[in-house]
Design goal:
Layout lengths: L2 H10 L3 E6 L5 E6 L4 E8 L2 E9 L5 E2 L2 H11 L1
Antiparallel strand pairs: 1-2, 2-3, 3-4, 4-5
C-alpha cells in the first residue's frame, strides 16, 4: 500500500489520520479506526511498512507481523 492509498482509504472510511516523525526523523502516519488505538505506518519512499499499534487505554504497543497484516487488510 502506498502513502496516498492509505490516506484515501482512511479518509473514505472517516478514520482519523495523524502525521508525525519517529525518533530517527522518519515520517510515520497513524490511523485511528476507533477511539482507542492508533495504527502507525512508517513511510519508505511512497510505500508503507506497518510499525506498531498503540492502545490509548492500556499504553501498550503491538508490533506483530500478523497483526500488521490484519490491520492492512481491514483498510481495504
Amino acid at each position: 500500500m502506498t502513502k496516498q492509498q492509505l490516506i484515501a482509504k482512511a479518509t473514505e472510511k472517516n478514520f482519523k489520520i495523524e502525521f508525525s516523525k519517529d525518533r530517527f526523523g522518519n515520517e510515520i502516519i497513524g490511523v485511528n479506526k476507533n477511539n482507542n488505538c492508533y495504527h502507525w505506518f512508517q513511510v519508505i519512499g511512497e510505500y508503507l511498512l506497518f510499525n506498531h499499534t498503540y492502545s490509548m487505554n492500556t499504553g501498550k504497543s503491538n508490533k506483530g507481523t500478523l497483526h500488521g497484516l490484519r490491520i492492512l487488510n481491514s483498510l481495504n
